[in-house]
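Team,

Forwarding the record for the chain on the shared tracking sheet. I've put the sequence and predicted structure together so nobody has to dig through attachments.
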Amino acid sequence: MNIIDRYILRELVKIFSLGAMVLTAVLFLDKILFLTEMIINKNVSLINVMKMLVYISPAFLVITIPMGVLVGTLITFSHFSADSEIVAMKATGISFPRMLRPVLFLSLGAYFFTNIVMIYALPWGNQSFRDLVFKILKSSAGYEINEGVFNNEYGNMVLHVMEKDPQSQVMKGIFISDANAENEQRIITAKEGMLLSDKETQDMVLQLTDGTIHVMEKEAQEYRLLSFDKYNLVIDIPDPTRKGGKLMKGNREMSISELLKKIETLKEDGHEYNVERVELHKKFSIPFTCLLLGFIGAPLGIKTARAGRSGGFAVSLVVILFYYVCLITGESLGGAGKVHPLLAVWMPNIFIAAIGGYLVRKTSRETPFVFFEWLVDSVVEVFQKLKKTLFKEKEFRV
């Protein structure tokens, strides 16, 4: 690697790192409301909040790393073109394809890192996040009982509460129909009650005060009436993804081997497994995007030189939006069985590869690509108008 390669790579890594961090921070903002609610309403500790941020970061990184490659190459080459460095390099005999060698190094590094995150870190992070949230909700009595309605989300138990104090959470006029026992039906009434949690066993407990229990045995046809001053009733935590006391893994929480095993099981049982095949192919197709987006960013960056870094960023967002719209559409069609899962997931990459090859070829030959130039100019023009409008509004308010 010569001096020019190191110089280009250094600039690429700087912009890539900054772009990936900014994009990751933007995605984290989407979780701020949820985390704030957990802190305020569920009294979640700062340590658990930090754990949740760590657990959800792989899901963001598999998106922001490919995006960072595109942003890094596009803005870097836009800067080179604006400062006439592209012209200077060509004057010394360095062709445009030769300039792409550092882009390949960056793309390969991003590809291997995204592969590790996608295959190992993402399933671990998703499952750990779900486990932690469930544990927090359970230990902080997070599952509330609503007043004035029949709450039937607790297994074979139905609860009705006449009144509930929003401050103390004390409930009054409690009626419970409990059919959890195999051979008996219980009707429980209580004057007051409160939902608590046992931090050791992580069980949800409804502490009842001053009530009666009507027990009807199904087989013996017997009836018993019991009175109590205080009675603790353990409540099942509703979670459709939980089986045998452990959270079941969704497709995104599974490793490649687990997905293959699930596909084989579904296939043997005669069930559809298109969704699982789509998820399996995504584990390979999304990291592969890193190898393609860099070769789109470089030629587009040269064409957006006059728009500056902000214009280049706007073009990057349009390309990213196009890719993910194609991916989501393909994922939906593939999961529904309307398109083969392999084609559904890899089609966006095929589009990106075709566009990238076309742009690199045109830029190497220094021939115009009319449609893409018009598209880039349109995006930049819209972005510039939007920026001017926003700045004018700010000045007016000041």
